[in-house]
Amino acid sequence: MKNTVFFGALAVAGLSAGAAAAGTLDDVKARGTLNCGVTTGLVGFAAPDANGVWEGFDVGICRAVAAAVLGDADAVEFIPTTGKTRFTALASGEIDMLARNTTWTFSRDVDLKFEFVGINYYDGQGFLAPKALGVTSAKDLDGATVCVQTGTTTELNLADFFRANNISYEPVPIETNAEGQQQYLAGACDTYTTDASGLAATRATFENPGDHILLPEIISKEPLGPLVRHGDNDWGDTVRWTLNALITAEELGVTSANIEELAAAPTNNPEINRLLGTAGELGAMLGLEPNWAMMAIKAGGNYGELFEKNIGENTPIGLARGLNAMWTEGGLIYSPPFR
Amino acid sequence: MSDTQAHMAAFVRTETLPQLDPPVTERGIVKWMRENLFSSIPNGILTLAAFAVIYSILSSALPWILNGVWTTSSLSECREVLEGATGACFSVLTERWNQLMFGFVYPSDQYWRPTLAFVLLFVAAAPVMFFDLPRKLLIFTALFPFIAYYLIWGGTILVPILALVGVVAGVMVYRQLVAGSFAMGFFGGVVAAVVVWAIGGLLIPDGANDTAALQAVPSRDLGGFMLNMMLGVVCVSLSIPLGIALALGRQSSMPLIKWICVIFIEFIRGVPLITLLFVASVMLAYLFPPGTTTDLFLRVVIMITMFSSAYIAEVIRGGLAALPKGQYEAADSLGLDYAQAMRLIILPQALKISIPGIVNIAVGLFKDTTLVSVISMFDVVGMIRGPLSAATEWNGIYWELYGFAALLFFVVCYGISQYSQWLERRLATDHR
C-alpha cells in the first residue's frame, strides 16, 4: 500500500481492520524502526540540533530501546507530540512508546489505560529567586509576589505549600513559561515557581544566571517516565528492562567507555555478566539478542552518562542529581536486580 | 481724470516688480508643516506627542537592529560579542535558516526541490493572476500541481503521472457526457478518474519508491515556512472553486442540494478551525484501523479547505445577492440555461464584487496555517515554539525569531492585498 497523498484515502477505503493482532515487539522488529513519541522541544530533554538530529535525555531512552530491540540506536522514528496529542498518538498505535517528560499519575495509568514502565526523572515544583532578594529558603517568602502559571497543578501546590507553612503570598498569574521568564526578569514578581528542571533551564538562558538561585524546597512530586499501552506486557517488559539496564549499568559501574572490555569475556561480577549477556539467558527471555543490554548502554551510555551529557551540571541547564542520584548515593534511582 | 492723475503722481513705475519668493510661511517645507502638522495648537501638541512616541520606538529599536550580530553560533556567544551593549542576535536566523524554511527533517541535499517548486509556482500562478499573458501558459498551470507534488514529495514519478492520467480521463468523460446533462458529466468524470486511480494504483510496483530518481520524502518531514506556503496555496486554490459551488448550491431551488449546502456552511462556520484540526489529527486516528491512517498533511488540507470554503461561500453569496434581479432575468430572457447564465452573466459580476472579501479570507487563511503547530506539525511557528526555543544554544531568544516570522507573513500578505487592489482597478468597468 503506497503511503502517498493520493492513495492514502483510497487505501483507507479499501482496507479492513484486521492484521493488527501481532505484538508491538514483533511490529517494531518487522518495521525495522521504533516509533518513539517525544516532546516538540524541551531544552535538555528532547530537541533536534542544527542538523535535525534529535538529542536529549528522553531521546536517549528512545535510542536505548531501539538499540536493545533492533541493535541500531539510529533506527528510531521520532514523532514529536504536544501535550494535547501525546496520549492519542500512543493509544492509536501511531507511536510504540512515549518518552516525553510525562508525569506518572493514577488517572493516566488506570483511566487512560497506559503502562508507566518506570521513572527516569524525579521532578518537583521549585522556586527561582534573585540573590538580591536575600532569601535562602522558600519558607522565607512570607508576603512575596509569586509568578505562577494559571490553571496548572503548580498553582494548587503553591497554595497548599504557603497555607501549610502559615505564610502569605500574592500570586501574579501568567500563561506560559516564556511569559513567566519575561515577567520575572522585569521584576513583576519576587519569585517564579514551576517544575525545578524547567526553572533550571530557564535560569540557564538568563544573561547573568549567577544572580539567581533555585531555593532548596521542592513542594510537589512529578515523577516522569516512559510509558506504553496497556495490555502488551511483552513490549512493556522490553521498555521497562531497557530503562532498568541503564540504571543498573550505572550502579555496577558499566559505562560506554568500558563496556566493550567488560562484555568481551565474563567478569568476576555475575550480575554484570547477566546484564551484558555473557552469562545467563536474560535476552532470550525478552525475545531479544543476548547482548541487548550492552547495545542499549552503548547507544548513549548508562543512566548517569545520559544525565550528565544532557541535563547534568556541566551543561547549560546544570541540574544537580539530587533525587535522581543512585539509591546508593542517597537518591531514588533504583532498579530491580537482573537475575 | 487720468490726465490729472498722471500729472499728480510723483512716481510711476514703468516696469513690473521682480518676482519675490512667497513668504517663508507660505512655501516649501514650512508651509507643508504648518498645514499638515501644526495647523492648530491641539494638532501641534498631537504632532509633538507622535514624534516623541516614534522617537522612543526608533531609539530603542534601531540600535537593537543595527547592532545585531549575525555570525555567532549560540546565544551566549552573542552576548559575549555584544558585551552588554544593546543588539539583536540574528545569528539564530542565519544558523537555523534552513530549518525555518524547510523544517528540520527535510533532507538537506534536497532543498533545491521545494525551492524549484516555489519558483515554478510564480510561473504557474502568473497566467491565472494576470490575464493579459498568453493563454497557452495555462497548460503549465494545469500541470503544476503534479510537478510540484513530484518535486516536493519525490518518490516514484508514476504516482503524479497516474494522478494526471486520472484527471485527464475524468475531463474527457465529462466532455463526452456534459452535452446530456451537467450532473451526468460531473459524476461520470469523477467515476472515471477514480477507476483510473484504483486500477493504476494496483499497477505501481511496491518498491517503486526505493528506486525512484528523487528520494521520497514523507509528509511528516515537511516543515518550516515551506509548509505554510504549501498549505496556504493548496487550500486557497481548492477552497475558491468549492466556495463558488457551495454559494450556488445554497441558492439552488433543489431542496436536497440547498439543504446540504446550508447545513455544511452553517456547521463549519459554527466550529473553530482549531477544533477541526484536532479532529483531523486526533479523532481520525481512532476511526481508522492502526497502520492505515491517511496522510496527516492531506487530513489537514481537507479540514482547512472545508473551513475556508464555507467562509468564501458566504462572501460569494453576498456578491450574488448584490446583483440586481434584472441580471438574472436578462440571462433568462436570452434563453441561456443555468450553467451558461452563471458562467457568462452572473458569476463574473458577483465574483468581481466579492474580490475584497475573498482576499480577506485568503489572507486570514494563510495566517491560520500557523495553527497546525498545535497538532505537532512544524510550520515556521511550530519550529520556533518547539525545536528552536528548546535548542540549548538558542533557548531564551524570542524577539528575533517571532519578528522574522512576522516579517515573512507580512511580505506575503501585503503582496496578496496589493494584487487584489490592482485586480479591482483592472476590473473596474463601471463609470465613477
- The string of secondary-structure elements of chain B, in order, is HHHHHHHHHHHHHHHHHH
Specify the structural class of chain B.
mainly alpha
Helix content of chain A: 25-40%
CATH class identity of the largest domain in chain A = Alpha Beta
**How many domains make up the 3D coordinates of chain A?**
2
The CATH C-level name of the domain at 220-390 and 398-432 in chain B is Mainly Alpha
CATH architectural label of the largest domain in chain A: 3-Layer(aba) Sandwich
Report on the biggest sheet of chain A.
Answer: 5 strands, mixed
Q: Tally the beta strands of chain B.
A: 0
Corresponding CATH superfamily of the largest domain in chain A: Periplasmic binding protein-like II
**Percentage of residues in DSSP E strands of chain B:** under 5%
Shape of chain A: globular
- Total helical elements of chain B: 18
Layout of secondary structure:
The complex is a heterodimer of chains A (339) and B (432).
Chain A: H1 5-14, H2 24-31, E1 34-39, E2 47-48, E3 54-55, H3 57-70, E4 76-81, H4 86-91, E5 97-98, H5 106-110, E6 114-116, E7 121-123, E8 125-130, E9 144-149, H6 153-164, E10 169-174, H7 177-185, E11 191-195, H8 196-204, E12 212-214, E13 222-224, E14 227-229, H9 233-252, H10 259-264, H11 270-276, H12 282-286, H13 292-300, H14 303-310
Parallel strand pairs in A: 1-4, 1-5, 9-10, 9-11
Antiparallel strand pairs in A: 2-3, 6-14, 7-13, 8-11, 8-12
Chain B: H1 2-8, H2 28-36, H3 41-66, H4 75-82, H5 91-95, H6 97-102, H7 112-129, H8 138-153, H9 158-177, H10 182-203, H11 224-250, H12 255-269, H13 273-287, H14 296-322, H15 325-333, H16 338-368, H17 380-390, H18 399-427
Helix pairs in contact in B: 7-8, 8-9, 9-10, 11-12, 11-14, 11-16, 11-17, 12-14, 13-14, 14-16, 15-16, 16-18
